[in-house]
Structures are given as C-alpha cells and as structure tokens.
Design a protein that fits this description.
The protein is mainly alpha-helical. It has 14 helices and no strands. Helices cover about 75% and strands about 0% of the residues. Helix 2 runs antiparallel to helix 4, helix 4 packs antiparallel against helix 7 and helix 4 packs across helix 9.
C-alpha cells in the first residue's frame, strides 16, 4: 500500500500550531483566560444562587445564557472578559509571525523549498485560528459543563445554538486582531514595533475613541427639551453609529443580542416603534437579523486586514534579508 503524501500546507499548519501552543506567551495568556473564565462563572453562579431568577425577567428561562452574561458586580461577565482579553490573544499570536522569521533568517530557507509562497501566510493564519478556536471552544464547554453539574438541567436547543453562535462570533472578533497584528508583523522589521503598534491601535479603539465620540455626541445631541423629538432621535442615532465603528463595540452589541434574547434593537427607538411591543424573547433567526450589520462589519474588516497582509507578504523581498 502506498503511503499517503501529506500536503505541505498542512505540514506547515501543524508546525505552526506546535510552536504556538508551546510558546510562553500562549501558555501565560491561556492560564489568564482560564482563571478569568472560572471567576466569571463563579460570579454568575453566585448571583443565581443569591438572587435567583426574576419572574419579570424576559430572559429568566435561559439559565445557561445567564452563565455568560450574569454578574454580581465584583467581576464582569464572561463575554466582557472576551472583549478585553480576546484582542490580546490575537495580537500575541500574530505580532511576530513574519518578522521573527525574517530576523532569524529562517523564512528565506522556507521560500527556497518547492512550495507556494502563499502557503506561508495562509498556514500562519490557519494555525492561529485553529488555536484560538480550540481555546475558546474549551472555555465555552467548560462553562457548559459546570452549568450542567450545578444547575442540573441541560441547555435547550435554542440556548445551545446561541452559545455556538457566540463562540463563532468570538473567534471572528479575535481573528480581526490576529490579522491586524500579522499585517504589522509584515510591515515592521522589529517584533517590538509591531507589538506596540498593535497594542496602540487596540487601546485607541477601546479607550480613547469612545471618549472622543462621547465629546462629539455631547456637542451634537442637545437635551431632549431643547430640540424637536425627530431631530433629537436623528442626532442620537448618528452618535450611536459613530460609536459602533469600533470592533469592540460591534462585538459587544452582537454578543449582547445573541446572549440576551429579549434585545430587540441596538439603537434608540421612537414611541411609535415601542408602542404595543411585548417584552418576550426573540428566536435566534430574528436576533441574527438584528446583529447582521455588526457581523458584516467584523467580517469585512477581518477580510480587509488579511487581504492587505497577503498582498504585502507576496510582494515582500525576502531572499536578500
């Protein structure tokens, strides 16, 4: 029997996965994410045990979703931790993906082999996505497992599908920061420069951009008593749209809608729109329709970052390095 020859692309993917899971940066961030996951799970279970379920809560029947969103106030819920630590995970896996091999002069040796050049950048992105997806899946299953043990009832099919959608959305959100850091890794020769640039972009969109938008919104949106209702709502919608440009806000809005089935809108509503509305949970399909602009935005910026990285890498001169 002839031995099956494995594709060079998957050999490179396996090699990248092995290097990443054995690196100290991944081990440290993995331990931090596991500890924060356990802390968020503890706060949600404590809040459920102390306060119980509010009978007037439209999300009260979704106990497993509350494990991801509920908090007693001491620690943020699980999805907020992903919003904060997810970009750091993506940046740590991508900031030295290319420039470290350039500095070690190993990339020219790989290029000299009879393989396609785009295998390198594709293998690095694929391996990082597999590592990120596996880690997030393990954390999600950990929360579900502890929920089964403590609550004693399995999640409903609707809850399980929402949790899977949350996992895929989290992988997509971290993939954006991964591709952005790989882009800086190709652009800058020093790994420290690419890491600092990636962290600077993350800090700007996470901390400084919301502060700037709040100042602009305060100047644009007058008090409700000083403006006509239609004009006030129009300017309020403009401020919300400016605030939703950031990837973290896109992810936060999408996860809140997926994990809280009672959310019906992500922007301000008029009295005519809210009149007669019944506070009942929405099916998963309707929730996906609400967050479709956020999903489209995250997919678009992720593809753009990968496309720019791909073009820069294919045009980069390597043999003379």
């Amino acid at each position: 029997m002839k031995k099956k020859i494995q594709s060079p692309f998957w050999i490179m993917v396996y090699k990248e996965i092995s290097d990443q899971v054995r690196s100290w940066k991944f081990i440290i961030l993995g331990i931090i994410m596991i500890l924060t996951c356990m802390g968020a799970l503890y706060t949600s279970l404590t809040s459920l045990a102390v306060h119980g379920v509010d009978p007037n809560d439209p999300n009260g029947s979704f106990l497993f979703l509350k494990l991801f969103t509920l908090s007693e106030g001491t620690l943020p819920p699980f999805h907020v931790f992903i919003t904060f630590l997810g970009p750091l995970l993506g940046i740590s896996l991508g900031f030295d993906a290319v420039n470290s091999e350039l500095n070690n002069r190993t990339l020219s040796r790989i290029i000299a082999q009879p393989i396609h050049r785009d295998y390198i950048i594709n293998a690095k992105c694929t391996a990082s996505l597999i590592v990120i997806g596996s880690l997030l899946l393990a954390l999600t299953l950990l929360v579900i497992g502890f929920g089964l043990i403590i609550i004693g009832i399995p999640p409903s099919p609707g809850e399980f599908m929402r949790i899977i959608a949350f996992w895929l959305l989290s992988v997509l959100y971290i993939a954006f920061w991964l591709n952005l850091s790989i882009l800086f890794s190709i652009k800058f020769r020093q790994a420290a420069t690419s890491a600092l640039t990636s962290i600077a972009v993350w800090l700007f969109f996470t901390v400084f951009y919301p502060m700037i938008i709040k100042v602009i919104a305060t100047a644009l949106v007058p008090a409700p008593r000083m403006a006509a209702p239609g004009k006030y709502i129009h300017k309020k919608e403009l401020a919300v749209q400016l605030f939703q440009i950031t990837p973290s806000q896109l992810y936060s809005d999408a996860t809140s809608t997926l994990l809280l089935p009672s959310v019906r809108s992500l922007g301000p509503l008029s009295m005519a729109q809210t009149y007669g509305a019944i506070p009942s949970p929405l099916p998963l399909g309707q929730s996906l329709l609400i967050v479709w602009p956020q999903l489209t935005g995250l997919i678009a910026v992720t593809i753009v970052c990968f496309a720019v990285s791909y073009v820069l890498f294919m045009k980069k001169e390597i043999r003379t390095r």
